[in-house]
Amino acid sequence: MSLIAECFRRLTDGSSCKSELRGYKVTDVNRTRKIGIACRNFQDLKRKACSKLNIANNPTEVNIFLLDGSLIDEEYFHTLEPQTTLILQKPGEKVLSDADILYDALRRVNIDFLAAGDKVTQFLTENLKAKVALLNKVLNKDDSKTVLSTKDEHPEWFQDLETNCTTKEAYMHRRCQDRIRTYLYKTIEQIRGSDVYMNDHKARQQLLRTIAFFKVQLKEDHYFGYYFDRSRAKTGNSKDDNDETDSSRCYEHCPCNFSHISYETYLRQRYLRLPQSSDTSTTDVDSTKIDETDARRLVEAEKNANDKISCIYRVKPSGKQIAICDEKGEFKCEGRWNVDGCAYGDRHRINPYKSREELALFSTWNLDHKIERSRTLVPKILQLSRQGTINEQDIYDCYDNLFTVKNLRLVHIVCHDKGSHK
């Protein structure tokens, strides 16, 4: 049977999607109810959760998030452990992470209840947000367990974490991938919701090719998980700093390990309609690795466009991957987007490898785009798509600005400017 016919059969034959039941905990954005769901796949989860939470929207309109605010898709869903707690978001709703809820709760309690007396009132009402920085100095001055790595060595660090990672480094690697993956999802969502994508046939083809490139290049770059992985910190010893990060040395959860196939073969199977090539480097491919959700969506897009999709951009080899922390795992705030360095100096530093409390506090730190994703970068991609074939260098520049530290800087919550970066 041909590859296209087999892929079409897998997409249309419901029996092929069946798998064993797995249990998850599901709640809404308000966290008012938590229910258990036994499901066989991502769509089954959405359908049952909408029914039990009395959500009238079509399940395809509902998004699924982790408690830390990470948006997940069907491919990522299959990597989650059973009993993971998930949040359903209806269109127009805002999802708050645990860190956001904790901060808001502390602020409400402190101001409304504890503000009794002139001194307390003055402390709590003046620059309360900045005082969060003091937690870094108050919490866990004992750093004797910072150097420990495995779950057996430091079990309390892993307490209540819904993960099968056995080392701190692996867990932090995945958390960074989650952040980069969220930027990808938000970029795709904004592109597909634009007038250009919906109304301009030729531009839509360019945008589909751009999305295809982003996904494959991110896989090549391991979704930049090593930004948070202290095992990749600079050591000062060039012999210890490898020039590249190949899949044989990467963690099990990394997409680079999902399938070892060439770029063109990967695209051909992922998007179903790329022409066959002379590439015979991989002949035995596990077809279950196909991202059926993306394939189904792209097939529909191609049907509407009445055109075939192909990626014309060359995927760059993954370069040296270096952490943005030191060998111990300590991160320093890089300051507001429009200044060089952090004005608070050593007061804005954190080591999530030290304790679970600092790990929780680290979730309030942001990878901030200096050139903004939603206001500048995505509109630029949309503009380029209307000018014909997008220049390869423009695609690389957009990719670097969206997903790499060329345009991302790690900042403390106080230094995160959510206003317009102009």
From TrEMBL:
<dbReference type="InterPro" id="IPR039729">
    <property type="entry name" value="DFF40"/>
</dbReference>
<keyword id="KW-0053">Apoptosis</keyword>
<dbReference type="InterPro" id="IPR015311">
    <property type="entry name" value="DFF40_C"/>
</dbReference>
<feature type="domain" description="CIDE-N">
    <location>
        <begin position="20"/>
        <end position="97"/>
    </location>
</feature>
<dbReference type="InterPro" id="IPR003508">
    <property type="entry name" value="CIDE-N_dom"/>
</dbReference>
<dbReference type="GO" id="GO:0004520">
    <property type="term" value="F:DNA endonuclease activity"/>
</dbReference>
<dbReference type="GO" id="GO:0005634">
    <property type="term" value="C:nucleus"/>
</dbReference>
<dbReference type="GO" id="GO:0006309">
    <property type="term" value="P:apoptotic DNA fragmentation"/>
</dbReference>
<dbReference type="Pfam" id="PF02017">
    <property type="entry name" value="CIDE-N"/>
</dbReference>
<dbReference type="InterPro" id="IPR044925">
    <property type="entry name" value="His-Me_finger_sf"/>
</dbReference>
<dbReference type="Pfam" id="PF09230">
    <property type="entry name" value="DFF40"/>
</dbReference>
<protein>
    <recommendedName>
        <fullName>CIDE-N domain-containing protein</fullName>
    </recommendedName>
</protein>
<dbReference type="GO" id="GO:0016787">
    <property type="term" value="F:hydrolase activity"/>
</dbReference>
<dbReference type="GO" id="GO:0005737">
    <property type="term" value="C:cytoplasm"/>
</dbReference>
